Each structure stands twice: as C-alpha cells, then as structure tokens.
Amino acid sequence: MRKESKKQPMFTRKDRDNIKWFWRLYLKDKAPWLIVVLVMVSLQAFVYQQFLSLTENGLRVIFDEGSIWKLVQVCGIVFALFLTRGLLSYVVPRVSVWLASNAVRSMRQDLITHYLRLDLAYFENTKSGDIILRLVNQVDALSNFVGHGTVGAARDFVTVLVVSGYLIYKSPILFSAAIIVIPVLILLMRAVSASIKRIQQSAENAFGNYMSGIEEMANGMRTVKISGQEDRERERLFEATDGIRDLTIRLNAAQALFPPSIDLVSAFVYVLVIGGGGYMVIQGGYAMDAAGIIAFLLGLVIMFDPMRLLASFFSQLQASLILLDSVRGIFREDIRIKDKDNAVLEFDKAGDIDFQNVDFSYNPEHPLFNDFDLHIEGGKKTAIVGATGSGKTSLLSLVSRLYDVDSGQVTIGKKDIRDIKVKALRGAFSVVAQDIVIFNASIWDNIKYVAPNATDDEVWAAAEAADIADLIRARGDAPTGPKGSQLSGGQKQRIAIARAFLRSAPILLLDEATSALDQKTEERIQGSLERLAKGKTTIIVAHRLSSVATADKIYVLDSGSVVEQGSHAELIAQSGLYAAMYDAQKDGYH
Questions:
Q1: By Cβ atoms counted within 10 A, which residue in 177, 533, 537, 572 is the most buried?
Q2: What is the pLDDT of residues 532-573, one digit of tens each?
Q3: pLDDT score, position 226
Q4: Strands 381-386 and 553-558: what pairing?
Q5: Contacts of 474 (CB under 8 A, 6+ apart)
C-alpha cells in the first residue's frame, strides 16, 4: 500500500472549525473587551518603537551634541514610556484572564449540562478518568492557554509588526537580511506541528488511563488489601506513570526545537546586520551612522525575543488544538433519549405497563430481547425473577427510558413512553436499586437528596419507615465517607428505601431492594415495603425469592424470554424453573 506523501497542514479543517466554534459561542460576545486588550497590547508595542527612536536620539546627543539637558529629557521620556508599559503589563493579564475565565466557565457549564443530558449508555461505556480529564484538566489547560498564551502571543505579534515597521523605515536593506528567519520558522513549524499533535493526543489518552487506574484502585482498595495485590497495583500505576513521563519528554523534545532554531537564525542575522551596517557606516552615503546601527541591533534584539515566544506559543497552540477538539468532542456525543417535539407531560401513571414486540440489545451481536411481550397490571405488585443476565434489570431500564427499545414499544396507560417528556416519565418512579449511590454527606442529606424541598417531618417519617431513624440520631451530621464507605451494605440499602418512601411516586421499582439485608432485617423492612407499595404499581426484580412470594403476578425470565408466569402458589404447583429456584433457596428462609 502506497504511503500518503502529502504533509499534514499546520491547521487542519477540523482545527479551523473548532477555533470558529469556540469564538462563536464563548468569545464573540466579548469582542469589545478584546478590542480594548488589543489596543493595550498595541500601546505596549508602541513603547518599544518609541524606545528605539529615543535611544537613537539619545546616542546622537551623547556622540554629537553633548547636551546634558537633552540627555536628561530623553531618559525621562524613556522612563515614562516603560512606566506606561509596566502599568499595561499589569492591566492586560488581569483583563485577559478575566475574559478567558468567563469564557471557559461558560464552556465548562455547557459541558456539565451536556454531560447530564447524555444517555446512560455513554457513562457505562466511558471511563470516569476520561470524563474527569476533560472536565477538569483539559478545560483548565485551555483556560490558561486562552487567558495567558493567546494574549501574550497577540502582544508579541504586534510588537514584531511595530518594531519591524520601524526597522524597515530605518533601513530596508538591513531588514531584508533579518527576514530570512521567517521562512525558516514556517518550515520548522510545519515540520513539527503534526508530531506535537500526535504526541499530545497520546499523552491525553495516557493521562485518562492513569486517572481511571487511580479511581479503580481507590474503589477496589478493599479487594486489593484482602487479596494482597498492593505490589501489582503499584506496578500497574508505575507503568502508567512511565508512559506519561516518556510522552512528556517526547512532547518537550518536539517543542524545544523552536527556541534554539530561532537563536541560531538570530545569530546569523546579527552577523549580517553588524557586517552590513558596519560597511554602510564606513563607506558612507547610506544615511546610517553608529547610533542608527546600535539602535537597529537593539531593535532586532527586541524583535527576536517576541518571535521566540511566538514560536513557543505555536507549539503550545498545536497541543491546545488537541485539547479543544477533545473537549468539543463531548458536544458531538449524540443524545438519543430526549423529548419529542410533541411529547406530553400528563399520562395515566396508574395505568397498565406493557412491553409489546420489544427488540433490544446492548450489543447488536448479542440481542437480549426479541419480539418480547410482558404485561404489568396497574396498581398491582408484579415480580420479575430469573438467573443473572436473564434481562430483569434491563426491563426496569427500558420502562424508565434509561435505554430505548430497538423496535416495538413500551406503554404506560396505553401511552408510548417515547411520547412522554423524559422528566415527567421518570418523575413517576421511585426506585430502590442494587447499585446505591451514597454521597459523602450525612444520612439525612442522603435521604433528602431525592426531594430537596421535603420537610423535616417528611424526612423523619421516611427514615422511620425504612428503619434507619435510630442510625441518623446516633450519627448526627457525620458524613458517610466516600461512596458511603462508613456504612454497611444493609445501611446503604435502607437509605435507598427511605428515599423511595420520601419520593413516594406512583410507580415503585424495587431492584434487589433487600439483597444486602440479613434475614431478620429483611423481615422488618418487608412490612415497610408492603406499606410503601400499597396502591402503587410495583415492579420487583429479585434474586431472593422470599421477597416476591406476595406478588400478584410473577414472571420468570430465562435468556430474555418469559418461560413461566403466575402467582407464587401457581408457580410452585407447576414444579418448573421457579419451583426449582425456590427449593434451592428455601433452606435459607428459616
């Protein structure tokens, strides 16, 4: 296969599109302030131009006129100019950082909003380290680059233009020797830009993997300690840090090509100017004297320093373009579960729930449901049981639109749930799930999370019903630890149950609601759950069959299909899969 010989451009079409996107959404409305900043950096460049002119005049005063008074005047004006530049050097960064911080804050808020609207599937398929990397590290890096880097580059660019104009005015012939640096820089930038982008992309991936590895280690520390795998975790993270180090060194090596290249070219230019300028002065007739040559050389020194900074800015720009594309990539993630244009708020929350001809899969190669039908009677208690992987929890995800069916429909009160506004649909559910989210706050605050406007009496009532009120009194405002690390599994489960009592929605979803409770505690909680479920459409997903015996109807799933259905007594009488499962567990019920 023939390799593509065409070089990658310094700015790809995607780069230009991303820059326009950032400008249009986050900077365009700040254009008046940006103009003010541009005026101020232009004044800074003007100071250098005046400094060169005054330096040349001052040298002539020393060499030719010998006037002390004129020399004092020149020195006073030079001091005033640099005092002005010093003041601007303070104001410009303050204003530019304020602008950049506001722009990036808006972008970060848009990112958070978009993240929260993304489908559950995105979070289940994306490493949390990648999410943190984008929301924190990459956005901060962009903020610093926009606030400091771009404004500094604008100042340096204007300085180069103004000083170049002055040097061209003084001697076009000498300046023509100086511009040899420009094509050399362009060729160098073009040569290394693709390399910088490639290394930066690899570095971001490495950082994402490293952060995910840290989170996995922290979350699994109990398993790490019990199994004595500290050495293995250390080696795994050490390997990741080695990769980050190597990529950082490679990135620095690519970026480090710019400054010495400019220094070498600058040295060559200085030799040409000194030699050529000296020749002009010695020969005469070129309107160039010693003061003019010294001022011209000083101008080159002033010009080449910003050019060196501009070259460094360009290398940072290449890396920042990767960050910008990564951050914008979040907004390219499609939100599939969203409201239709004609979606409604009101629907029959007490109506029957039906799965009709449903096809669904997490992976197209491994379908879970095929032409699946299931009827759940409104206001009744329906249980769904089966082996792990049979599709029990997936049904709850589909009815609450955490996922959408591939074909067929799910209806509540004969209304397709896709025709209901997502927030209104999910507001109809109270959930007690097996994967309980506990925040590092008090138990009280954790319960109140699902209903921020609830009264204290309502929270206490929910806590009493879930048999966790005594624990609240004992712990007070003490935080529960990261992810509820200071609580037992049963205590976490009771928090989830208390949330369901507090929310008290018309449809109750119990996903392994008592799975972490011992037999004695389950018996106490069961009465609370019975009261909670009264008059509501209740769907119970359970592995422990003792919790579903009182259900009005039980469906037994196997590999995404309903293989048995009926009441507990009817299923026991059938002596089928349910009866076998119950017999295997019943010794633990006594």
A1: 537
A2: 788 889 999 987 787 788 889 999 998 889 999 999 899 899
A3: 64
A4: parallel
A5: none
pLDDT digits (tens, 9 = 90+) for 348-383: 999 999 999 999 998 888 889 999 999 999 999 999
φ, ψ for residue 376 (rounded to 5)?
-120, 115
Do 407 and 423 meet the contact criterion of CB atoms below 8 Å apart?
no
β-pairing, 369-376 with 353-360? antiparallel
- Res 392: pLDDT: 87
559: left (phi over 0), alpha (psi -120 to 50) or beta: left
Question: What is the number of other CB atoms lying within 10 angstroms of the CB of residue 156?
Answer: 23
Angle, CA 113 vertex, CA 110 and CA 118 arms, to 5°: 120
Structure tokens at 12: 């790809």
Structure tokens at 522: 């389950």
Strand pairing class (415-416; 507-511): unpaired
**Helices 151-170 and 31-60, packing angle to 10 deg:** 40
Distance CA 398, CA 477 (A): 37
Strand blocks (E) in 433-548: 507-511, 537-541
Classify each residue of 287-312 as buried b or exposed e, where b means 16 or more C-beta atoms within 10 Å of its C-beta. Answer: ebbebbbebbbbbbebbbebbbbbbb
